[in-house]
TrEMBL record:
<dbReference type="InterPro" id="IPR011768">
    <property type="entry name" value="Transl_elongation_fac_P"/>
</dbReference>
<dbReference type="Pfam" id="PF08207">
    <property type="entry name" value="EFP_N"/>
</dbReference>
<comment type="pathway">
    <text>Protein biosynthesis; polypeptide chain elongation.</text>
</comment>
<comment type="similarity">
    <text>Belongs to the elongation factor P family.</text>
</comment>
<dbReference type="GO" id="GO:0043043">
    <property type="term" value="P:peptide biosynthetic process"/>
</dbReference>
<dbReference type="InterPro" id="IPR014722">
    <property type="entry name" value="Rib_uL2_dom2"/>
</dbReference>
<feature type="domain" description="Elongation factor P C-terminal">
    <location>
        <begin position="130"/>
        <end position="185"/>
    </location>
</feature>
<comment type="function">
    <text>Involved in peptide bond synthesis. Stimulates efficient translation and peptide-bond synthesis on native or reconstituted 70S ribosomes in vitro. Probably functions indirectly by altering the affinity of the ribosome for aminoacyl-tRNA, thus increasing their reactivity as acceptors for peptidyl transferase.</text>
</comment>
<dbReference type="InterPro" id="IPR012340">
    <property type="entry name" value="NA-bd_OB-fold"/>
</dbReference>
<dbReference type="GO" id="GO:0005829">
    <property type="term" value="C:cytosol"/>
</dbReference>
<feature type="domain" description="Translation elongation factor P/YeiP central">
    <location>
        <begin position="67"/>
        <end position="122"/>
    </location>
</feature>
<dbReference type="InterPro" id="IPR008991">
    <property type="entry name" value="Translation_prot_SH3-like_sf"/>
</dbReference>
<dbReference type="Pfam" id="PF09285">
    <property type="entry name" value="Elong-fact-P_C"/>
</dbReference>
<keyword id="KW-0963">Cytoplasm</keyword>
<dbReference type="InterPro" id="IPR020599">
    <property type="entry name" value="Transl_elong_fac_P/YeiP"/>
</dbReference>
<keyword id="KW-0251">Elongation factor</keyword>
<protein>
    <recommendedName>
        <fullName>Elongation factor P</fullName>
    </recommendedName>
</protein>
Length: 188
């Protein structure tokens, strides 16, 4: 059993007969009244995100987890297939277990969180950023911009990202996976 001082991003807990991963948290100590922790929890079974407030010192039922490196193989429409990079065993996960499946490219190495009690995969953590090639974007027109103008671009995985006007088809760009935003253009 843990308490609210052990709360951190990525911690898996049992709450309301389900397992949730803490996505965001904030310790709040108001001037009047007791301290509390405001959290954003994501269900590892359904992918649904809920907000909850725990009072300070509240006991939480944490789930013991292990992390393993898996390589993304392919998506067959219903399941995403991964291979363990250490022992080459394969697993398949539903789309709900993934944070950003639209940014997942074949061959990408991700971290899979596995429940140690029953060896079931709980969720997939993407790398902080991914490098993808732009497959379609409209040409940027000079002169009709003020500052920080962007345009939509489709990348090789099918995801749509807003990029600066100087990005063209065929360019490789770095995308921050947490927010799905453009970071920088990659020079070959």
């Amino acid at each position: 059993m843990a308490n609210t001082s052990d709360i951190r991003n990525g911690l898996c807990i049992r709450y309301n007969h389900d397992i949730y991963k803490i996505v965001e948290f904030l310790h709040v100590k108001p001037g009047k009244g007791p301290a509390f922790v405001r959290t954003k929890l994501k269900s590892v079974t359904t992918g649904k995100v809920i907000e909850n407030t725990f009072s300070a010192g509240h006991k939480i039922d944490d789930v013991r987890v292990e992390t393993h490196q898996f390589q993304f193989l392919y998506n067959d429409g219903e399941f995403f297939h991964f291979m363990n990079t250490a022992d080459y065993t394969q697993i398949r996960l539903l789309e709900a277990a993934l944070d950003r499946p639209d940014l997942l490219k074949e061959g990408e190495v991700v971290t899979v969180i596995i429940n140690t009690e029953d060896n079931m995969p709980l969720s997939v953590e993407m790398p902080a950023s991914v490098i993808l090639e732009v497959t379609h974007t409209e040409p940027g027109v000079k002169g009709n911009t003020a500052t920080n103008a962007t345009k939509p671009a489709t990348v090789e995985t099918g995801a749509e990202v807003n990029v600066p006007l100087f990005i063209n088809e065929g360019d490789k760009i770095k995308i921050e996976t947490e927010k799905g935003t453009y970071k920088e253009r990659i020079k070959e």
